[in-house]
Fold:
Amino acid sequence: MTIKSVLKNFIKLTGYEIVNKKAGLVLTTQDSFSQKTMGRSLMHLRSLNYAADVIVDVGAGSGTEPLLTAFPQAEFILVEPLIEFLPGLEQLKEKFNIRKIIIAAAGTIAMDITLNVHPDLYGSSLLNENEGPYADGTPRIISMMKLKDEIIHLNPAKHNILKVDVQGSELDVLQSAEDLLNVFDVIILEVSFFNFLKNAPDFASVIKYMDDKNYVVYDMFDFHTRPLDNALAQADILFVKRDGQFRTTHNYADAETRKKLNLL
Structure:
């Protein structure tokens, strides 16, 4: 056994491991995959010289901090149905270029609709819980707008990001503007691996829909398990255009890097 092997085995006993990154050695946790976050993923895009011009955040809550931090120079259009979050969103105007704040849900048609408001406001949904009425929260009538009406003027030559986190209605939001989705380089969606909400799409349905629109998975992060049995429940998925700027090559590595990684 080499000194290098002994060192790597010893470090693994401490809960860490050494991995190659850009042909160098990096100390990381063995569970680093579960530590992937939106912030790290967006900073990766920045490391590739990507800078967002406009970010449309549907289901903004009090503001999606990783988007604001990674691209502070961008213009933001914030869509959030809960009036409780409005004061926090207004405060963002002091530091960021907030083009517009829309207090409404986003969907396929403009209308009034019932939102099930949960004690944990971030869990509020237009859909009903699979567990039954006791878990649905308190119904509230709110306004719904069509996403298309807000993005129709976006410049497709610019770098635009769409983030949608709306507790099961993600595809409804996309369908309300599906003929304009190609203005976005990056689309971030929350996806469930179980049917927690009635009539909500699962992982396979979302992947198929995005594939039909020529978007593919580029990264996954912010994994959550369900308390019932610790099974993987939800994750955020970052999609990019199939033939876009982030997929100009399908090579695994260049020749020099392969040599350094002992792959040749």
User: Anything to note?
Assistant: The chain has two domains: 1-31, 36-260. The CA atoms of residues 56 and 100 lie 10 Å apart. The radius of gyration is 21 Å. The domain at 36-260 is CATH 3.40.50.150 (Rossmann fold).
